[in-house]
Amino acid sequence: MNNSNQWRVFKRLMAYLKPYKLLTAAALTLLLLTTVVRSLIPLLASYFIDHFLTDFNQTAVMILIGYYLMYILQTIIQYLGNFFFARVSYSIVRDIRYDAFANMEKLGMSYFDRTPAGSIVSRLTNDTESISEMFSGILSSFISAIFIFTVTLYTMLMLDARLTGLVAVFLPLIFILVNLYRKKSVKVIEKTRSLLSDINTKLSESIEGIQIIQAFSQEDRLKDEFEAINEEHVLYANRSMALDSLFLRPAMSLLKLLAYAVLMAYFGFQGIGAGITAGLMYAFIQYINRLFDPLIEVTQNFSTLQTSMVSAGRVFDLIDEAGYEPLQADSQAEIEEGNIEFKDVSFSYDGNNRTLNHISFKVQKGQTIAFVGPTGSGKSSIINVFMRFYEFQSGQVLLDGRDIRAYSQKELRSKIGLVLQDPFLYHGTIKSNIKMYQDISDADVEAAAEFVDAAPFIQKLPQQYDTPVSERGSSFSTGQRQLLAFARTVASQPKVLIMDEATANIDSETEQIVQHSLEKLRRGRTTIAIAHRLSTIQDADCIYVLDKGQIIESGTHEELLAQGGTYQKMYRLQAGMMDAAG
């Protein structure tokens, strides 16, 4: 990240302060007050040393009381300032995290095809947390340091310009060190954050695929791969720490000690004759602390600032990602019947290699059509195009005689029901999974479960419809999860039903229950089915056989068998396998 990019990211972060300008102004005011109070304390101590150290009286007592009261006041004001900054920080991070999540929800499937889930999770958690650290601690310390540095330097000049000049010699060295650190550290920090994202990605994949990993005894391989990434992350983290140790606190502390040495040497050579009193010497020692300590703190936090800037850039990349799902018209058009027609549709995922080649077919309300074919033939691509997960390159997709793009996204999502091979259940309850947070009554939920034959197993559960659902519904069988997915679809009352190998992963006994539910689910609805088991789609009004993105055969089950082509071979192969299994 170069200087211009860092500046651009910083300005964008500052724009998030706008809604909280009053709270930010209050925090800044309190920081300024803290600085003023901190600067007055050494002056008071200096005055006490020069005038009352050998002549202790009632005025001296009052000055001492005032001295300690100022310390208490400084603590209270500083606490309030930090508290206000923390409030602003958490609010800004909430806004940034919301913007990133909101944009992510609008992105098309192509983005998720090329971006690991762990990387996205890392940006929304680790990277936003890093931004929070910048606002809650670093930004306040930077601003506080500017205030303290300015007020302290001004006070020192007012007290003695000669001594101030001796100390000021070291200031350019500080800025040179900070600039060197910034140039050398940014690439190391970027690599460290990237590797942390890789760790999250590998962790996410390992958790989601733990059954396959254990089934194929891949634990050692995954452990070695994780350790390799983890080791590289530690390597770059150590490089970052080495740069911190070289350019930041140790270097700054050394400069402060040199400033002390120069001050003491000057005092030793000039002494009282130069008009330097004990009180003035004490004040300058305190002011050197106040001059260097904030700078040391700022430089110490500079690595965190660099990390925050890199993290912010990664989050803004997600917010700026424009690979949105295909656009739909903002219209009031409604899907009444569910008649579908593909006219010479071609589609490619990468823009070069066609997955669908001039596909054309029709299906009317109440009819069922099915697509069969080998893996990679284009079956799921037809569903992806029709569901508007991806934009097709040529041809036309009509729904009730209108171009599918003429409907709003809300209308499409509400009138098209999708049942996948691996049904996804959310953490919650059976009831919330069927409702999917739509305006559906409990009676409608129960009616939907009854309709698809899910009610019998639900009613046997101790809490029935309020039974908790764990992540991905792992406590239910595949067949039970599929029935709940059917109930969810029925509850939304779609006009069109899409089934992507809905019975592929269930046993034959459960399949009979699911098939019975499917028959009821399909009645009166336009249905498009992708089938692996040909036995599940024999009653379809038309079956299309796909190969390499083209329709090579079409007809009813009997017609395709009579043609003696690819479908017949597929059917005989499956029938032979079933006979052998029997």
Automatic annotation (TrEMBL):
It is a multi-pass membrane protein. It is found in: Cell membrane. It comes from the Bacteria. InterPro entries: AAA+_ATPase, ABC1_TM_dom, ABC1_TM_sf, ABC_transporter-like_ATP-bd, P-loop_NTPase, Type_1_exporter. The chain crosses the membrane at residues 62-85, 138-157, 163-181, 257-285. Residues 340-573 form the ABC transporter domain. The keyword Transmembrane applies. This is Multidrug ABC transporter ATP-binding protein. It comes from Streptococcus pantholopis. The lineage of its organism: Bacteria, Bacillati, Bacillota, Bacilli, Lactobacillales.
